[in-house]
Amino acid sequence: MPDPNPLHIHGPGCGHHQHDAGPAGGVMVDLPDDSANPILIRVTRGGLVESTHRGRAVVVGADGHVLAAFGDVKAITYPRSANKALQALPLVETGAADAFGLETAELALACSSHDGEPMHTERVAAWLSRIGLSPAHLECGSHAPYSVPTWEAMLRRGEAPTTLHNNCSGKHTGMLTTALHRGEAIRGYVNYQHRVQQRILGVMEQVTAHDLTSAPWGTDGCSIPTIGLPLEALAFGMARMADPQDLPSARADAAQRLLAAWGAHPELVSGTEGFDTLFMQALNSRILSKAGAEGVSVGIIPDEGIAIAVKIDDGAKRAAGPAMAAVLRRLGLLTDPEWAALEGLVQPAIRNRAGLKVGGIEAGF
């Protein structure tokens, strides 16, 4: 049953004020006691439950009603990369995407945590070239591509990873594109006080309907700020992107374009073997999926204006996607044929070194 007390919604014209340059008073915000959160995922081996993953999950409609909640969904958490679509809204609504002629593939990359395959890096490189910049302008740092075959091929060729291989290079290129369009400084665009980040912060505040003035924040793996907010606010923001009827027209259009690009190019959002890509491909993008670090995941059902957000308490990546799918299944938001198509992904087998199935990962309820 819907929550009789929907989330408070700020008006679409809600103003935004400058935020402080540091975490709220330096106060440490603890995770809730995990004993209060349910076991979302259990890991079995033989006849024994060997490990469990507790967490929180919430499903919210675009009207603000909480349709289902598991655990303390009001507790503050960092969304990490799960909110990249929210961070990409200014790229479209400022007119930057149209000014530089961006296509749907580039909008999908702006929302992605890609695996560093050539289909990702070559597109980001071409995008940077089109706006007159180079990989040297990306302030995200570099790391080995998540795609093992890609990394092995690079090692054989004696190539080192660059900023293009950073899983966030598409998002960062989007931020640079917006800064160029607005005539803002390029250097330091990752800093909390930079106009690029303050603009994103304002958008997040308005779309999630949560006051972020004193929100705790930290530095993400790619150097931009990550802002703490309740899990239910994250889900609500994603639901409003799916059904943006009460958002300003430019923002509503931006949300629809980003979600359409996200669904049209699932291979760019993650990668050939990535959970998000495989999940969306199996469902023909009826449900959009986006993972973040430390066990965060969101799912959006555009046709229904519903979104889910999940946070695994111990940060386990292996639990986040299966937990999201299990909750959707429990609520009847995944059909029997869809669940069957996803079974190997959302209830993966655990295999030993000889390739024999010795256990599995499954829903804890």
Describe the structure.
- With 365 residues, the chain is of the alpha+beta class.
- It has a single domain (34-363), classed as 3-Layer(aba) Sandwich (Beta-lactamase), CATH 3.40.710.
- It is 38% helix and 18% strand.
- The chain has helices spanning 84-93, 96-99, 104-110, 118-130, 148-157, 169-182, 195-208, 231-242, 249-264, 266-269, 275-282, 317-330, 336-346, and strands at 39-45, 48-61, 66-70, 76-77, 217-219, 225-227, 229-230, 288-292, 296-301, 306-312, 349-351, 357-363.
- The strands form 3 sheets. Strands 1, 2, 3, 8, 9, 10, 11 and 12 form an 8-stranded antiparallel sheet that branches. Strands 4-7 form a two-stranded antiparallel sheet.
- A hairpin with a 4-residue loop joins β9 and β10 (306-312).
- α1 (84-93) crosses α7 (195-208) and α1 crosses α9 (249-264).
- The protein is globular.
Shape: globular
- List the domain count as a whole number: 1
The residue ranges in which pLDDT falls below 50 over 5 or more consecutive positions are 1-17
Overall SS class: alpha+beta
Beta strand count? 12
- Give the helix proportion (percent range): 25-40%
CATH fold field value: Beta-lactamase
Order of helices and strands: EEEEHHHHHHHEEEHHHHEEEHHEE
Distance between the termini: 19 Å
Mean pLDDT: 92
Overall CATH architecture = 3-Layer(aba) Sandwich
Major β-sheet profile: 8 strands, antiparallel
